[in-house]
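Predict the 3D structure for this chain.
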Amino acid sequence: MNFSGQTGLVEIPDARTIPSDEVLIHGNNDFLAEDRQLGNARNYILGYSLLPGLELSGRVATAKDAMGAQIRNDLSGNAKWRFLDTRHIDLAVGIQDFAGDAQNFEARYGVGTAELGPLDLTLGYGVGPDRLDGPFGGVALNVGEWGRIAVDHDGDSVRAGIGLRYQVLDRVEAELATKLYSEEADEDVSVGLSLRFALGKPAPVIDSPRVELPQPAAVTASAGQMRRGPHAQPQSAQPQSAPELAANDTRDRNADAIADGLADAGLSRVRVGEDAAGQTVVKFENRRFWHSQLDGFQVVHQVLRRLDVDADNGWVLLEEKNGVPRSSAVLDEDLRLRHSALGAQDADDVDWLTEESSTPFGVELRLEPRIDSLVATDFGVFDYDVALQSTLSVLLGHGLSLHGAGVVEGFRSDVYDDGGAFENRQQESGLDEAFLQLTHRPFSPYVGRVSGGIQKLGETDFTVLDYEVALHSPTGAHQLHAHIAHFDNQDFDDNRDMAIGSYRFWWWDRDLSVTLSAGRFFDEQLAGRVILRRYIGDVIVGLFYARDEDDQQSGGLSVSFPLTPRVGMEPIGGAYVVGQPRWQYAASTTIDGPEGRNVLRPNFLSEPDPNFNLRRDFLDSDRALPGYIESHWRRGIYGDQIDSGKR
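Done. Predicted structure below.
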């Protein structure tokens, strides 16, 4: 990354972009020559390609005068689109420092880069107004894997620099860059440090942690007692022949072996049966493998593979969550995926051969950091209030559950302290929310969750009645979602109603989803919102933009990922202690506010919901859907050991 916040040479951009499976963090002490009268200057930049060829970056430029007083704290956004990507020539257009009332580095440009052996030649033209006003260009010499030397001209000055790369960890690369020369006489030495983080790749996870699975011979040889469930069909009164008795005995012993093997591997509420089509049905809940719903399916797959049990008519793997069917996967007799489906539509008329391996009751304690932060305000570059949140969940089965969350104060920056500018945003120790929830699925495409309880929003306690519903197409690619809530202020006459409708489209092959929403938000403003999400392994990066009825706008970036081990600890007396399977952090800013000013409105167009909401919790961040399961079948915990693809 160059010193101005985009991929490029020294000061100018080139036509390359950040790879779409990487995040780049960069910091430097560089400002342009016209700003050299500033004393202490810093740039902090976060870059990411939300789509292949579309690079987005956010930049915080902070500066103090010679006396140490803060005179600049500017937040800006940059974008670059590479519209031509060939083996030797790339073309791109870009914009720097768009929107807002403090545009200090605004530029619009077109640029091309040609690869000639180890040389990269870049030529572009910009229309300013603050920089890149006219033709610009440069050349870079790539020296193996360890670095490169670059010289460029930004339309005003010639600069030269060198970058040195080092692979710190398997998924982390560091680059140290410095300017070796500049025509500007008053330009100090500039040094920058970049860190590239590989978030994950669309490929099998070869080095995933494993769990102890049964040995093929040992488990199949063990014969257990047949455990017939209460819904099993009664045995025929007709006497059975010796071959029939032997076949039934083998079937029952295999069912017991499967149930025992899956329970030993860490799955809950396991039950094995046979449906009217002769398929072997395996029902289970995943309360131990937290990164993805796929991991639960793949643990089942590997247990069946190791047991080497015959199923002439194939398999139906049915996953439930707290007693509510979530999704199913149909495999052939060789354990290859045929298709996936919503809910339990592939598991009708089942003759259960075993009892459930555990009761519906379960207790789960989640621990996670909770961060309230503000970026690039008049008070500082990054202000924060960090607390510890603990959430206790009691699963009662049949979709019924109790959830309570509490907060313990941690540490905060000065502006959050008593008397500070943001003391009203302090996270205080105490109860944060408590809900009784019921999830229901009356038919496979439809799933809903009703929540009733209390919730603390800011400094105010509300009594809340919340309902979410999602309706899906057969693959889950199309989703209609509604979120309706009533907030009853416990202290003042400030009751609020919220109603938001959404349409979401999932592009499986691109690991991309887009959600369009409209309605009345918590601040009772009518508004529209669009969210673009990119799924990279278990990391989800999102870009959002919202606009209300008064033409006030906001936008920002979010990232979520598992903040817990992939394989959770074994339960203690039926209770699980975990981190947060889907921890999220978001930063937003207003855009072109009233009179052109970016007014600080941290909760603008917010959509409060319970910690355990429908899409993030039950639908596994919209991944517990047939299209995702089919297109990502080999990306889970045992992805490298599963026969490729759908047959």
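The mean pLDDT is 84.
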